Amino acid sequence: MRSEVRSLRLCATGALAMVSGLITAATFLSPSAGPVRWGVWLAAGLALPSYWTLSLALRGSNGFFFGVFLGGILGRLAGVAAGIVAAWRFDPSTVALFALSAAGALAGLSIIEVYFIGRQNRLPQ
Q: Fewest beta carbons less than 10 Å away: which of 27, 29, 57, 60?
């Protein structure tokens, strides 16, 4: 059972990294996609720890799991807000591209995260 959870976590980490890498590779096709690339990288940097903490808290009590879930949401919001502030200080004209790419990538990566959390939840205890 432990090896199943471990292999599922590694598979999820690989899937999140692969999707982030594919999106990043697609941004290299456009010469002006720097803010999009940074938004995707920020989203990947926020999604991976969020997935791991949820995965580790899954078998805990409901209060603990939902505390970790809420903390992950607040952490992502704080991370995106810090990224927007940094983009604003660097070049205010890129804030919209950065924010939209970060939000879109987080939404896409969250779908992958929910899929793997659901699979882990269905494993026998």
A: 29
